[in-house]
Please model this.
Amino acid sequence: MKKYLMIVCMMLISTAMFAQQGSTYVGAIVNYGLHKNYKNFGIGAKVQYEFIDNFRAEASGNYFFKKDYCTMWDVNLNAHYLIPVADKLTVYPLAGLTLLGYKVEVLNVSTSDSDFGFNVGAGIEYPITETIKLNFEAKYQYVKDYDRPVISAGIAFAL
Model:
């Protein structure tokens, strides 16, 4: 577990190292995870860094509340390719890495674990002001034994 946390810290630090050159946004996320055996809501935070035109990196962390005996958390490092489609509307495919942790508790017996996987999905983004953006995203998390789609809505503020 310590090595997983060290890798996640290194991923987040490497994203933050570039924060001096491009546009940086921070934001909040509301999630809904849709595993076949359990579904749960979550909240999270994200940092986005647009380091070249139409390309950005996003680091995010989410906590999914207990439902159907399961709580989960994830840490993600995704890349977005931004495609302007209308006056202000932007769509983006995404791909990246995830570290997913879970705890299942049934009748006072619990088990927990974490594992690495990857994300694939797409999103849509709309700026409501020069410094505030709204987004909606759908992705699939491929993680051993815990594959699932996740839909989310978020807001981001320019720094």
Remarks:
- Strands lie at 23-34, 39-52, 55-67, 70-81, 83-84, 90-106, 109-127, 132-143, 148-158.
- The chain has a mean pLDDT of 89.
